[in-house]
C-alpha cells in the first residue's frame, strides 16, 4: 500500500471528471453546497487563498459508484478511474461553474471584486459579469474587457484587465492531491469516515452508510430504489437517511435496547439484511395505512417523520401476511395523530424514539405508547384555542387538511379531490380564503401573522387560487361555490364573516368548526380503554414568540418578540447575518449571530434541526422552516420607524426550548 502525493490544476481535474476518470464511490454522500458556498469557493481561488487538498483512492478492481450532481453525463473512462474520497463538494461546484450549470451561475463585480450567485439585479447591472463568460472554454476575454470599458467604470482600464486576468487564472490554480493505492474497500471507508468527521460534520447516518456500503457493495442502490418506489407514490421524504434510521431502529433487540448508528455499523451482514427486510415489510404496511386510512397523501404534510418510525418498526416485526387486530391498528393511528398534535418529536427526537421503540413489544403497545405521551387514561381533544395564531408552519396544517379530506372536500375549480392538487415538491396546494390584498386594503389593520393564520388557509389548487379567488373578496367568489363544497372546507355560512371587516370573527368561527372535526377524527380512532374525559392538547405555561420584519432606508431588521409567563423580551436580528448562519448550518457548521449586542449561537444537530438561542428561548426548527420563517416575516414588512425598541438587558433566567413551528402562536 502506498500514498502518492501530487498536484493538478483545476482545468485538468474538470477534464478528468468529464472523461469519467474521476468518479464518486458509493460511500460518498450527496452534493449539499448552497449557491453562496460555491461563490465563496470561486472568490477564494480568485484571491489565492488556500482551497484545501483532495483525497483519492486508486484500485485495480472496479468499485461501486454513485452519480455525481454534475448536470451532465460522464464519459466511460478509458483507464481505471480515481475514486474521490474528500473534496466532492469543491470539485462538483467547480465543474458546475465551468460547465455553466443552471444552479451555479456565479457572477463577479469588476469594481468591488465581490462574488455572488446570478440574480435579476446583477443581470441588469453591467458591472457584474458571469464567471463562466471569462473562464469557459469559448470565452472571449477581449470582448468582455471591451464591454466593461464601455460601461463607464470608476476603475482604470489597466485595472480592469488585471482583474479579468486574475479571474481567468482560477482554472490554473493547483490542488494538492493524495492518492491511496491498493487499499481495501473497507479500509478506504474507514479513512473516509475519519477524514470527513474532521471537516464538515457528517450525520451519523452518512457515516453508517459509508461503512455499510464498504461491507455490502450495492447496498446504497437498494436504499435508493426503495426511496424512489415510495417517492413515486407521494412519499418522497422516505429518503436514504430515513431508511438508514429505520434500519437502525429495526435492529433494536427485543425492544429492550435501542441500537445506535454505531451499533448498526458493527452489526453482522446477516442481521443487517434481516433488518432491511423488516424495514421494507413495515413500509409496505404503514404507507398504505397512512394514505388510505388516514388520507395523508404525501409526506410533505407530516410535520415530523420520526412519528412514522415506530409504526414501521412495529409492522416490520410482524411476520409476512400476519393480521393486526383492527383495534390495534386504529390505536396506532390514534397514537400517531396524538404524537403529532403534541409535537412528540419536535425536540429531542432520539430520546423520544428510544422510549417509544422500547415499548413496542409490550403486551399492549398502544397503551404503552400513549403512556409515553402522558395520556394513558384519557384521550385528547383539539380546541379552537389550540389552533389560534398558528401558521402554515404548524403541525396543525396536517390536521386541517385531514379535516377537509375526511369531509370529502374537493377543489372548487375542477372538482377533483384535494389530494390531487400538489405542487412540484409534492406539497398540497392551498390558498387564503380572505386574500392578503383585500385584508391589507381594509380598515381592519390586520397584521401579517393574522393574514396568514392557519384558519385562513383552504386546500384548493393553483387554478382555483388564480381563476376564482385572486384578490376577490370571499363574499364575491364563494357565491359560485356550492354550499356542500363550502361546508366540506369548513367555510362559515354567515355572510358578514366573508367581508374583510368580519375577518377576525371569521377566523374564530372557522377554528371552532375545524377543531370539532379534528377531535371527531381522533374520536373515531380512539382506543376503547381511554376514558371519555379528554385533555386539551395545548395545555402549557404562557409562552409566545412572534417574528416580524421591518424595513426602510435600505436597512432590514428581523424582530423577535418573546414572552414567558407575562415577562416580555424583544431582540433585533440582522436577517443577512441569520441567512449566512443558515447557509453555514446547511454545511454542518456552527456559527453565531448578534442579537442586540450579544452573540447568539446557531447550531445544527445530527437530526438536521437548527437551534438558535436568543432571549428566553432556544428555538428549534428545520432549515426549511427557518428560511420560510424569515421569508414570511418580510413578505409584509412594516416601516422601520415603527420597529419596537429592543430589550436592553439579557434574559435573567434559563433558556427554554421553543419550537419554530409554534412561532406566532400563544400557548396559555
Summarize the structure.
This protein has 27 helices and 23 strands. It is an alpha+beta fold.
Describe the fold and architecture.
- The chain has 668 residues and is an alpha+beta fold.
- The strands form 6 sheets. It has a 6-stranded mixed beta sheet with strand order 1-9-3-5-2-4. Strands 14, 15, 16, 21 and 23 form a 5-stranded mixed beta sheet that branches.
- Helix 13 crosses helix 14, helix 15 runs parallel beside helix 17 (365-373) and helix 26 (575-586) runs antiparallel to helix 27 (623-635).
- The longest helix is centred in the middle third of the chain and has 25 residues, at 269-293.
- The protein starts with a strand and ends with a strand.
> What portion of the residues fall into strands of 2 or more residues?
15-25%
Largest sheet: 6 strands, mixed
Kindly report the average pLDDT value.
Answer: 87
Compute the separation of the termini in Å. Answer: 66 Å
Widest sheet: strand ordering: 1-9-3-5-2-4
What's the total count of β strands?
23
Question: What overall form do the CA principal axes indicate?
Answer: globular
Number of helices: 27
Spans where pLDDT lies below 50 across 5 or more residues: 198-202, 253-259
- Secondary structure: helix percent: 40-55%
Q: Helix/strand/pairing class, anyone?
A: alpha+beta
Radius of gyration: 28 Å
Please give a handful of descriptors for the protein shown:
single chain, 668 residues, globular, alpha+beta
Can you lay out the helices and strands and say which pair or pack?
Layout: E1 2-9, H1 10-18, E2 22-25, H2 35-47, E3 54-58, E4 65-66, E5 82-86, H3 88-98, E6 106-109, E7 115-117, H4 120-124, E8 128-130, H5 131-135, H6 141-150, H7 157-168, E9 174-181, H8 185-198, H9 204-215, H10 219-231, H11 240-250, H12 261-266, H13 269-293, H14 309-316, H15 326-341, H16 349-358, H17 365-373, E10 378-381, H18 384-387, H19 396-405, E11 431-432, H20 436-440, H21 448-451, E12 457-458, H22 462-469, H23 474-477, H24 483-488, H25 503-525, E13 531-536, E14 543-552, E15 555-564, E16 567-573, H26 575-586, E17 591-595, E18 598-604, E19 609-614, E20 617-622, H27 623-635, E21 638-639, E22 656-659, E23 666-667
Helix pairs in contact: 1-3, 6-7, 8-9, 11-13, 11-14, 13-14, 15-17, 19-25, 26-27
Amino acid at each position: 500500500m502506498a500514498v502518492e502525493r501530487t498536484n493538478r490544476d483545476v482545468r485538468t481535474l474538470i477534464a478528468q471528471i468529464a472523461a469519467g476518470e474521476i468518479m464518486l464511490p458509493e460511500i460518498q454522500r450527496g452534493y449539499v453546497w448552497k449557491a453562496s458556498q460555491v461563490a465563496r469557493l470561486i472568490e477564494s481561488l480568485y484571491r489565492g487563498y488556500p482551497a484545501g487538498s483532495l483525497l483519492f483512492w486508486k484500485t485495480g478492481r472496479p468499485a461501486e459508484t454513485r452519480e455525481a450532481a454534475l448536470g451532465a453525463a460522464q464519459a466511460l473512462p478509458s483507464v481505471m478511474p480515481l475514486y474521490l474520497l474528500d473534496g466532492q463538494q469543491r470539485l462538483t461546484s467547480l465543474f458546475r461553474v465551468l460547465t455553466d450549470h443552471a444552479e451555479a451561475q456565479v457572477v463577479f463585480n469588476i469594481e468591488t471584486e465581490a462574488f455572488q450567485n446570478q440574480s435579476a439585479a446583477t443581470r441588469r447591472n453591467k458591472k457584474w459579469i458571469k464567471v463562466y463568460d471569462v473562464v469557459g472554454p469559448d470565452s472571449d476575454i477581449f470582448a468582455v474587457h471591451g464591454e466593461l470599458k464601455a460601461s463607464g467604470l470608476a476603475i482604470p482600464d489597466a485595472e480592469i484587465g488585471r482583474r479579468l486576468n486574475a479571474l481567468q487564472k482560477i482554472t490554473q490554480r493547483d490542488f494538492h492531491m493524495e492518492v491511496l493505492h491498493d487499499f481495501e474497500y473497507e479500509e478506504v471507508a474507514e479513512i473516509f469516515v475519519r477524514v470527513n468527521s474532521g471537516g464538515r460534520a457528517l450525520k451519523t447516518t452518512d457515516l453508517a452508510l459509508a461503512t455499510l456500503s464498504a461491507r455490502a457493495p450495492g447496498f446504497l442502490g437498494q436504499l435508493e430504489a426503495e426511496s424512489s418506489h415510495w417517492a413515486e407514490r407521494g412519499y418522497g421524504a422516505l429518503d436514504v437517511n430515513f431508511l438508514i434510521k429505520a434500519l437502525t431502529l429495526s435492529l433494536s433487540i427485543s425492544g429492550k435496547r435501542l441500537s445506535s448508528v454505531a451499533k448498526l455499523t458493527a452489526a453482522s451482514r446477516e442481521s443487517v439484511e434481516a433488518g432491511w427486510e423488516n424495514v421494507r415489510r413495515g413500509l409496505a404496511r404503514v404507507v398504505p395505512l397512512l394514505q388510505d386510512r388516514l388520507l395523508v397523501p404525501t409526506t410533505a404534510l407530516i410535520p415530523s417523520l420520526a412519528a412514522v418510525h415506530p409504526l414501521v418498526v412495529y409492522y416490520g416485526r410482524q411476520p409476512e401476511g400476519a393480521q393486526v387486530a383492527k383495534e390495534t391498528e386504529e390505536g396506532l393511528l390514534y397514537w400517531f395523530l396524538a404524537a403529532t398534535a403534541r409535537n412528540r418529536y419536535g425536540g429531542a427526537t432520539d430520546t423520544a424514539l428510544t422510549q417509544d421503540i422500547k415499548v413496542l413489544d409490550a403486551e399492549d403497545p398502544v397503551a404503552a405508547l400513549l403512556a409515553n405521551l402522558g395520556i394513558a387514561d384519557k384521550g385528547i381533544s383539539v380546541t379552537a384555542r389550540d389552533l389560534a395564531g398558528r401558521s402554515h408552519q404548524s403541525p396543525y396544517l396536517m390536521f386541517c387538511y385531514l379535516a377537509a379530506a375526511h369531509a370529502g372536500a374537493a377543489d372548487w375549480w375542477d372538482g377533483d379531490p384535494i389530494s390531487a392538487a400538489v405542487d412540484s415538491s409534492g406539497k398540497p396546494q392551498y390558498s387564503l380564503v380572505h386574500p392578503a390584498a383585500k385584508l391589507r386594503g381594509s380598515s381592519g389593520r390586520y397584521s401579517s401573522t393574522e393574514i396568514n393564520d392557519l384558519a385562513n388557509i383552504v386546500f384548493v389548487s393553483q387554478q382555483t387560487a388564480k381563476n376564482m379567488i385572486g384578490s376577490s373578496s370571499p363574499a364575491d367568489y364563494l357565491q359560485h361555490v356550492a354550499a356542500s363544497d363550502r361546508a366540506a372546507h369548513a367555510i362559515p355560512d354567515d355572510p358578514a364573516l366573508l367581508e374583510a371587516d368580519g375577518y377576525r370573527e371569521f377566523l374564530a368561527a372557522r377554528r371552532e368548526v375545524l377543531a370539532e372535526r379534528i377531535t371527531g377524527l381522533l374520536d373515531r380512532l380512539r382506543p376503547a380503554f381511554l376514558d371519555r374525559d379528554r385533555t386539551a392538547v395545548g395545555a402549557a405555561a404562557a409562552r409566545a414568540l412572534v417574528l416580524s420584519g421591518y424595513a426602510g432606508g435600505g436597512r432590514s431588521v428581523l424582530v423577535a418578540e418573546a414572552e414567558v409567563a407575562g415577562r416580555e423580551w424583544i431582540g433585533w436580528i440582522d436577517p443577512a447575518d441569520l441567512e449566512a448562519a443558515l447557509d453555514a448550518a446547511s454545511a454542518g457548521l456552527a456559527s453565531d449571530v448578534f442579537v442586540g449586542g450579544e452573540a447568539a449561537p446557531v447550531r445544527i444537530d445530527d437530526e438536521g434541526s437548527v437551534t438558535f438561542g436568543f432571549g428566553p428561548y432556544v428555538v428549534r426548527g428545520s432549515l426549511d422552516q427557518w428560511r420560510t420563517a424569515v421569508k414570511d416575516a418580510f413578505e409584509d414588512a412594516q416601516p422601520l420607524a415603527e420597529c419596537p425598541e429592543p430589550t436592553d438587558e439579557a434574559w435573567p433566567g434559563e433558556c427554554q426550548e421553543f419550537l419554530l413551528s409554534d412561532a406566532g402562536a400563544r400557548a396559555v
